[in-house]
Amino acid sequence: MARSLQVLHREIVVCRACPRLVRWRETVARVKVARYRDQTYWGRPVPGFGDPEARIVIVGLAPGAHGANRTGRLFTGDRSGDFLYAALYRAGLASQPTSTARDDGLVLRDAYIVCTIRCVPPGNRPAPDEIANCSRFLDAEIALLPRVRVVLALGAVAWRAALDSHERSGGVVPRPRPAFAHGAAVRLGERWLLGSYHVSQQNTQTGKLTPAMFDAVLEDAKRRSRER
Hints:
The protein is α/β, with parallel strands linked by helices.
């Protein structure tokens, strides 16, 4: 019997494959920051979240230090998540525009969120071997989503991870390898790979990524997900 998402998630949250990431995620969870000093941090790898029947999978980089590493749900409790979930709500893919805690009632519709690596990395920069160690979780989680038609990569690292995952699953990637760009679209067999700048504050607070720009990418994802 094939393992379920629930079984996979139990495997993810106990992973200790990357010593540097284990030390960092647990240090962040122990030291905390002043505004969250009274909260108990998750401090473990973070599994994916969303609709198991989703046609759109969104691939991020990693949990936020005081977002998902604190709350235990991807893009929850930080500014990146505020931007992402507000956009998903406008697109009709989320039940509410905010994400504050795992039990806040947020439900995704036709969308599922994963990350390239599942532990917060120092400086938000995972090492190549850490990405490789975590790739099995990315592959397995996407494989357990039977209706996926669009993979939306947030940033260049997620774009490369999505291409690598497609190759590991037996798919063919065009040559020369497609380069990441905001708004990029590449057909990969029965699926589309789309690119967007990451929803990090570095992009959203500088105007590199605006709500209108991200809304357009989500509308493109929705349109392509309905193609036959």
